[in-house]
Hints:
alpha/beta; 7-stranded mixed beta sheet
Amino acid sequence: MSLERLLNPRSIAVFGGAQAQEVIRQSDRMGYKGEIWPVHPKKTEVLGRKVYRSVEDLPGSPDAAYVGVNRYLTVNIVRDLAARDAGGAVCYATGFVEAGEEGSELSEQLLQASGDMVLIGPNCYGILNYLNGAMLWPDQQGGRRVKDGVAIITMSSNVGFNLTMQRRGLPIAYMISLGNRLKFDLQEAIYTFARQEHVTALGLFLETMPDPKAFQEAVNFAQELGKPIVAIKVGRSEVAQKMVISHTASLAGSDSLVTALFERLGVARVDSLEALIEALKVLHVLGPLNGGRIAAMSTSGGDLTLLADAMGPDLTMPPLSEEVAQRLRATIHERMVAANPFDFQMFHWNDKDRMAADFGALLSGDFDVALCLLDYPREDMCDQSTWAGAERGFVQAAQQTGTPGAVLATFSDTITESVAARLMKDGIASLAGIDTGLAGIQAAVDIGAAWK
């Protein structure tokens, strides 16, 4: 089952009222260059575009269709689209398998009506393509166009919506909400997005584990292509498991078995959306890490103490060798201590070249990743320019020593999207918050160990 036409459409047909209009509005806002064909039984114009009365009246076979009508009309429209050899359809309507016996019968009708055509959903928001601006999505979204980024696959449309609103600097290439997964399930999504040249990593939000064997094969395929995967799997608690059943008409599955499966396959598991975002940022910029040996530096012993307390057993700040310590002593101020973690204080704060020399000496040691703790002043009230010495010095040292590097803010309010974008251009990850930032590092370490 190929998703290529639906994923990268040259033409989009939209069916319905408010939801269909939002697909057009968002696609226009994101600079989509293909054709959009509204279909409505009564309107003559929608957002400046000619309206067609039916699938039969369309000027061609659409690569993609957004079907934002009730569940009964959805079945008929999908049947007509399949007969017209459309590339695929996103079905927004609810009231299918999650709605009891009648809904299950309608699901079967919808499946039969789709024939050989790709179908996403029903009961889902759809697909966002930030590479070409095709927004098959019935609501607002907060993303930006990118040249490359991560793909996020979610079983919750609202979680997908929320993730598009993140302001942590994560470049998202694709977002898909799977809904009821009538015809296009988790494993197909993994295969599809792992194949995309401009996708760097995959993030999953899972409520159920539909087919462990198929999941394993898809994850192995992604690994062969060098595409790491990090996941949240909900349903740990009894209350959460009941919510999954009522929401999806599926069982959440044994949490311990899911953990074991993820560990065996090299899928990093995180426990929050913030950690998912941070892990995907690390994987997008740095990829899987070779280990958890960290070189850490900050102007504050307090920050470094917080970092040390938050580290799990797989992450360490090993002491410097005597050779590296001597190299560091030769460049730092006499009142600094040559150690890891490194409290570099403020002596060379505004001097990029001196900072680069200090950091470069530290990073001449054997480390898997370097973390420079920097909390930036508010952009709206303060001047961030004097942070450039430390930031640029760290970037230069990481690049010259070939050490994977990240700037880590102690909490999310003290690092912004503009800082993240600037660092990313230089191959440096930006991490927002000590706990979630370390969860991101841990995910990359876990995947690196599994891939070995």
